[in-house]
C-alpha cells in the first residue's frame, strides 16, 4: 500500500513538474511582452489618449484606445522604414557620416558606438548567424570540459601572433546563456558535437538536467 501511494505521489509530482515546464516559457514571454507594452503605454499611449479625449467626446473609450494603439504601431514601423530610406540617401548618409566622425572623437562613447554599429551591421544587414556549431573545450584544466559555441575563425593580430589556427569560441554561463566569455582555442583542441545550438542552450539553462537525445552514428 505504501509503495502504491509513493507511486501515485511520484506520478502526480512528475505531471505537476511537466505542467510547470510547459507553462514557464509561455509565462516568461508574457511577462516580457507585458513589460514592453507597459513602457509603450506609459510613454505614448496614455499621453495620446489624454490629448485626443477633448476632441472625441461621446466616443467609446475602447474604440479610442484601440485606434490609438494601431496608429502608434503603424507610426513606429513607418518611422523606422523612413529612417532606413533616409540613411540610403546620399546627402543624408553624408550628414550621418559627419555625425559619426564627431562621435568618434568623444572618449568612451566612441568605443560603445563602434561596437554596437559593427554588431548591428553584421547580424541585421548581412544577416549572419553568430553561432556556428557547438563544441566541447577542455577548460579550465585538463580533464574538465565546458560547452562552447564556435562563432568564427580568429583573424588579424590574434591569429598572426600565434603559430596555431585559432577558433573563436563563446562559452555561455549557467543558467543565463546570454552572458559568458570568449576563448581562442586551437582547432585541433575542439571536440565537435552533433547536437544543435538550441540543444546546447537547453542544456546550459537547465544546468545539465535537460540532456538532448543522441544516437551514435553507426560505423
Count every beta strand, where a strand is a DSSP E run of 2 or more residues: 5
Given the helix and strand composition, which structural class is it?
Answer: alpha+beta
Q: CATH class of one domain, anyone?
A: Mainly Beta
CATH topology of one domain: SH3 type barrels
**Proportion of residues in β-strands:** 5-15%
Poorly predicted ranges: none
In helices, the fraction of residues equals 55-70%
Query: What is the string of SSEs from the N terminus onward?
Result: HHHHEEHEEEH
Number of helices: 6
Residue-averaged pLDDT, rounded? 75
Q: For the terminal residues, how far apart are their CA atoms?
A: 49 Å
**For the CA atoms, what is the radius of gyration?**
26 Å
**Strand order in the largest sheet:** 4-3-2-1-5
Largest sheet: 5 strands, antiparallel
Question: How would you portray this structure in words?
Answer:
This protein has 219 residues and is of the alpha+beta class. The chain has a domain of 73 residues: SH3 type barrels. The protein is 56% helix and 14% strand. The chain has 6 helices and 5 strands. A 5-stranded antiparallel sheet has the order 4-3-2-1-5, with helices on one face. Helix 1 crosses helix 2. The chain is flat and about 70 Å long. The two termini are 49 Å apart. The mean pLDDT is 75.
Amino acid at each position: 500500500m505504501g509503495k502504491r501511494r509513493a507511486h501515485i505521489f511520484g506520478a502526480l509530482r512528475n505531471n505537476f513538474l511537466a505542467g510547470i515546464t510547459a507553462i514557464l516559457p509561455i509565462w516568461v514571454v508574457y511577462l516580457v511582452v507585458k513589460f514592453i507594452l507597459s513602457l509603450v503605454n506609459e510613454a505614448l499611449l496614455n499621453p495620446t489618449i489624454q490629448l485626443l479625449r477633448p476632441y472625441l467626446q461621446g466616443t467609446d473609450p475602447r474604440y479610442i484606445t484601440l485606434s490609438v494603439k494601431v496608429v502608434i504601431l503603424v507610426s513606429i514601423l513607418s518611422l523606422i522604414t523612413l529612417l532606413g530610406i533616409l540613411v540610403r540617401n546620399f546627402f543624408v548618409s553624408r550628414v550621418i557620416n559627419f555625425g559619426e566622425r564627431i562621435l568618434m572623437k568623444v572618449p568612451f562613447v566612441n568605443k560603445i558606438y563602434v561596437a554596437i554599429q559593427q554588431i548591428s551591421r553584421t547580424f541585421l544587414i548581412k544577416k549572419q548567424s553568430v553561432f556556428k556549431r557547438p563544441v566541447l573545450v577542455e577548460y579550465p584544466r585538463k580533464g574538465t570540459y565546458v560547452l562552447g559555441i564556435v562563432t568564427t575563425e580568429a583573424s588579424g593580430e590574434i591569429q598572426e601572433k600565434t603559430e596555431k589556427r585559432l577558433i573563436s569560441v563563446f562559452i555561455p554561463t549557467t543558467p543565463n546563456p546570454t552572458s559568458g566569455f570568449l576563448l581562442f582555442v586551437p582547432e585541433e583542441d575542439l571536440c565537435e558535437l552533433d547536437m544543435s545550438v538550441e540543444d546546447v542552450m537547453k542544456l546550459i539553462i537547465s544546468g545539465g538536467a535537460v540532456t538532448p537525445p543522441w544516437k551514435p552514428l553507426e560505423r
